[in-house]
Amino acid sequence: MFKGFRDFLLRGNVIDLAVAVVMGTAFTAVVTSFSSGLINPLLAVFGGTDELGLGFRLVSSKPATFVAIGPIISAFLNFAIVAAVLYFVLIMPMRHLTNRFGTKKAAEPTETELLIEIRDLLAQRDAEVARHEADHRRVEAEVEADAAVDRGAGQDSPRR
After folding, report:
1. How far apart are the first and last CA of the chain?
2. pLDDT value for 26
3. In Å, how far are 17, 20, 26, 93 from 23, measured between CA atoms?
4. CB of 34 within 8 A of CB of 81?
5. Is 63 exposed, middle or buried (0-12, 13-18, 19+ CB in 10 A)?
6. Backbone φ, ψ for residue 25 (5° rounding)
């Protein structure tokens, strides 16, 4: 029971996935700190004199109705930063390495090419069937000719 669990854990893809999750979590913490330390104060500059930051109040006399736009913009910027870093640091280099050293898949044939191949295979099969039938008729004709010769030889032979 434990051997199977150990084999599962020690497979390469499980360990790689665990490393990726830990690294992603750590990187997200870095981006969040960057956002809260630098981007949020910059967004608060645009928020005006309100201590709540960038946003607006639905009811001006009630602070609980404040709609904060700053955290939404900050979340979008966090997402964009994480996505850009992942793309430029992981995806592009892996694509480059795969294109350079990886195996290239053969191009999938088009529908027309498949139909042409089917047509050619059917024509080849029909030619083989016709050749086989001609061979069969030739053998039957030879057998009948031999039988006729045997019958004719039997009639021509003198009777005793």
Report:
1. 94
2. 83
3. 10, 5, 5, 17
4. yes
5. exposed
6. -65, -45
Q: What digits encode the pLDDT tens for the residues 9-44?
A: 666 676 677 777 878 888 888 888 888 888 777 777
Share of the chain above pLDDT 90, in %: 19
**Six token digits for residue 27:** 């990187």
The pLDDT score that the predictor gives to residue 125 is 94
- HSE-up of 135 (CA within 13 Å, CB side)? 6
CA 35 to chain centroid, in Å, comes to 34
39-46, Cβ contacts within 8 angstroms, sequence gap of 24 or more: 39/73, 39/74, 39/77, 40/70, 40/71, 40/74, 43/69, 43/70, 43/73, 43/74, 44/70
- Counting every residue written for the chain, the total comes to 160
Query: Checking DSSP bridges between strand 66-68 and strand 55-57, what pairing results, if any?
Result: antiparallel
Q: How many CA atoms lie within 13 A of 112 on its CB side?
A: 0
